[in-house]
Structure formats: structure tokens, C-alpha cells
Amino acid sequence: MASVTVSHVNKAFGDFQALSDVSIEFSDGGFYALLGPSGSGKTTLLRQIAGFSFPDSGEILIGGEAVESLPVEKRNIGMMFQNYALFPNMSVFDNVAFGLMVRNTPKREIEARVGEALELVRLSGYDDRKPHQLSGGQRQRVALARAIVFRPRVLLLDEPLSALDKALRLGMQVELKRIQREVGITTIFVTHDQEEALTLSDKVGVLKDGKLLQEGTPRELYERPATAFAATFLGDANLFDGSADDGELALADGARLRTLEPLARTGPVTCAVRPEKIAIVAADAAISSDSNVLEAELEEIIFAGNSLNYLLRRGDVSLRVFAQNRAAADLQPGQRVRLAWRAADTIPVEA
Amino acid sequence: MKARPINVLARVYLGLVLAFLYVPILVMAAMSFNASQFYMLPIDWSFDWYVKLASNARLLEATRNSIVVALVTTAIASVLGTAASIAFFRYDFRFKKVLQAALFPPIAIPWLITGTAMLMFFFWSGIGRGLHAMILGHVALALPYVIIVVSARIKGFDPDLESAARSLGASPWQVVRHVTLPYLAPGFIAGALFAFAVSFDQFVISYFLSVPGVSTLPVEIYTAIKKGFTPEINAISTLVIAFSITLLVIVSRFYRFGGDR
Fold first, then answer.
1. Which of A132, A259, B169, B196 could form a disulfide with B74 if both were Cys (CB 3.0 to 4.6 A apart)?
2. Closest by Cβ to A102, choosing from B163, B168, B183
3. ipTM score assigned to the predicted complex
């Protein structure tokens, strides 16, 4: 296993700057998610690390060794492709054995290691099947076994779960995490699915327009997004635009919100509040002193079984509130309601 | 289950198609074993015509020429055609569309016209006539067929398979050997069969490009029939058919054609 260091990497395709000055440290044994919308550069970055494409400038180190000019086959990485890319003419065994075969591993060792790998992904006994005889989830397990059987230094996953339906995806998330922990391999995975990034990884990097916007643990990123983009791309967020006034956020209509920490700057400020942090409270409810209170008009209630999704409006700003389906108040659209949340949940972000 | 009228019609139709395809061949094969030169029935079974064939130097020489020309044509056309198909699939270059479109007219232009044109060109350019000229002509004819057949196979190729093989540590040569070629093999074999058939069947162009004493089997059969039909022709034709069928059976045992992978 090894750590991966990407420092000051630039990559352009013609006029399009796919990566600009990206630096990330992927720690040894960590599970790192590169999250971003399409065109954010996350796949380009993965391809630079894999060695399918080479950066215009900057350095890539795997286990301390500079690899940016090595082709992919010399980097000793394992990669899982979005469509799995299993070799259709080979059996499950031969697919998994491929990385060992091209390394001239002795036959007996190949058999033992392929057996172990298939056991790890819970596909023992499927050796002779052809890929077209497997379900989507099984194909994915084969692809994973194939990518780790030769003990690569890094495992790269390109949108690994996007081809599966939702029920299967949840199961595979658990599996993937278990296998990654058991093997202890440094794992970098690319996804546009924020939920996947949050549940699987222990560190997330958010990319946009070829730049690394923010990185941190899933919790840090979710609770303390640094930009309005990170706040809305990683989960839902209500954004309040206003200006800093005496350390508080003054909205255009005169309402004032207290923030996580008193605002140090002046001028226009945007704050994000997660919809589930906001409560709809009764008009006469006691509000603790460290809370923000705002009135809004309820426009719609969406019933989602275990939760309720309130759509509200305050002036020309639309707001969302999520509530557990537990003793929810009997509210009607058109009604004016009071919203309350902790000042600490009001996060100033860069617009 | 009772056969519905439409089913009966369909069966009759199928039966007729098969009959028109195979009955003439069966008759010919049967007659090659008939001692009577005048196709008298009942068949008087014998191998006379095969024995006579064995001493017919002209026909045997022509058969040998046909096989040599067809094998050389197949080797050249299938390698060039496969390379061209890979290039069309993998690379974008100027005039790619024009080049691809230019492949089809030779298939549509009557061989008689192509043959005349080749004869004139080969004469004018000093290439002349003979087996080498036939091989050149056959390769030109077979190439579009190979490219079309191999391209049809390549179209379904997922380039990620090559990326995957590389990520697993395969050198460029190992990628070609273990991933690309095995995938292409059925297309390559089918293309090679086409090339062989185009060349081995070729009459018009071979006729134009043959010189006295050096011709191919179809040309020789044509010449022989003009002079007067002998059942030796049936014998050699039956052998050729037996050879073709054997080849097809062997190939289809190794490769299932169609959509499988």
C-alpha cells in the first residue's frame, strides 16, 4: 500500500482547462472520494493518477515515487471501471487472474490468490462462469476482485456504483467499504453522487471547474461547507443572502440572523442552513436565546414516508425544511409559520 | 398443434428455397459418381471420373493456381483489411468519411467493368497479366468485404477493455494478444473466409488477367465446358464443395457467428 500525492497538477484539452493547480494528499489506507458534477475534472484527475493521461505540469507521487511520466501498466494500480470492463471472452477465473498472468505469476500461486480474491468478494464457486452469465452486482464483484488480486498500491474506482439499481447499490456500498477495510488499500473513487461520497469515504474532495474547492471528512464538509456550491452539491441547503452588520447577517427585509461565529467581514455575505436543522415551531413556543427565528409562508408539503419535506417562501426566497415523520404538526399550505434554528447551524459560505 | 395455413405456406417456401439451393449441387455430386457420361439413370456407381481427374494436368494445375491465389489474397486482404478497420475505429483523420464511403462502390460496380478497367490499367502500367496480377486484382476486390465484416465486429468493442488490461499491468503487446485479438478473431476469420471465397469464386477478373497456360479453376472449368462437358468437372466441383463445407464446419465449431461474444 502507499499514499498518493498530487501536487500542482494542470491539464488542458485544447482551450479547456480540465485541471488547474490541483493538489491533494491521499493518505495511506484511506478511502478518498473525488466528488463533483460532470465536467468538474474528477475523472480527468483519476486518469492522471492512473496513468491513462499525463499532466501538463505538476507532480504525482505514489508511495513517494514520482510516477507522472510512467504509463499506466507500470504504475501498479488497480482500477475498476464504470461499466466494469470485464473481458467477455474469459471466465470469471481468467478475468481475475489476468493481472497475475501478465506478471508471470506461477500457476499454483495464481490459483490460490484468485481463490482468495473471489472469497473476499463472496463469489467462490463462480470461477467458470462467463461475464454475461452474471448479474450486475456479481460483475461488479468480479471487477473488484480483478482490480485487487495482484495487490496494487492504490485502488481507483470510477463511478463504481452508478450502473447498479438503488437497492443493489446500498448493498454494494457496505460490501465495498468492508472489502476496502479488510484489504487496507489506499482507495480513490470518483463519484457525482454525494450520498455515495458521504457514506463510503473517510475523506471527500469537492471539485468544480477543474479546481479543488474544499476537502475534509464527510462530516466536516457537510456541517461546514466553505462555498455555496459545496453546500448545495453536498446535500441540500437554504441560502440566505444579506450583508454583514455588527457581526450578524442582515437580510434585505430587515430580519437579522446570528451566525456560527460573529461575522468578521463587512459587505455582502451568504449563509447556508441545512433543511433538517430548521424546525417549524408553534407561535407561542419558547425559543432559546441562541436561535434564529424567521417567519415564512408554507407553500407545499411533500410527504415522503419517513420524512416530511416543507417548501416555504419568504419574500422572493424559497426555503426547504425537512422534518422526521414524528408528531408532525398539522399544517396547511398557505399558512404562515415560524421557523427556528440554532445560530451555530448558520454557516457563512463563499457565494 | 395443428399447422395453420400460413405455417404450411412458410414451410413450402422454405422447402423450395432449400431445394433450389441444394438439389442442383446434389445432382452434380451424384453424377460425379456415375460411370455414364450421359447422365443415364440409374446411377452406375464408380470413381472413374475421379481417376480421370487425377491425370488431368490442366485442371489440377488450375486448381493449384486457384488455391495459391486465394490463399495469398486471403492473407494480404485480411491483414490489410483488419488493420484498416482498426484504424477506422480508433483514429479520426482527414477524409476518413470519404475513405469509408469509397469502399462501397467496388462492391456495386459489376465485375465485368472492374475487370476491364483492371486489364487496361495493368496493361498500361506494365504490371501485365498472370497470377501476380490476379492476386493484385483479387486483393482489391476482397478488401472492402474484409473491412465491412471486421468493422461490424469491431463496432461492438469496448475500448475500456484495453484500458482495463493496461491498468492490470499488461504491456501493449499483451493487450493486443490477450484482449484485442481474441475479441476480433471471429470477425477476422469471417473476413478471411469472405476474402477466400471472393478470390476462389472469381471468374471475370481472373479470366481477363489470365494468360494462356496459367489460369484458375473457374476459368479452366469455363474453357472446358466450352470445348465439351466432361463429368470430370463434376468431380472437381464436388471436391471443391466438400472442401468448402469441411472448412465451414471447422470454423463454425470454433467460432459461433452472430451476436455472441
1. B196
2. B168
3. 0.80
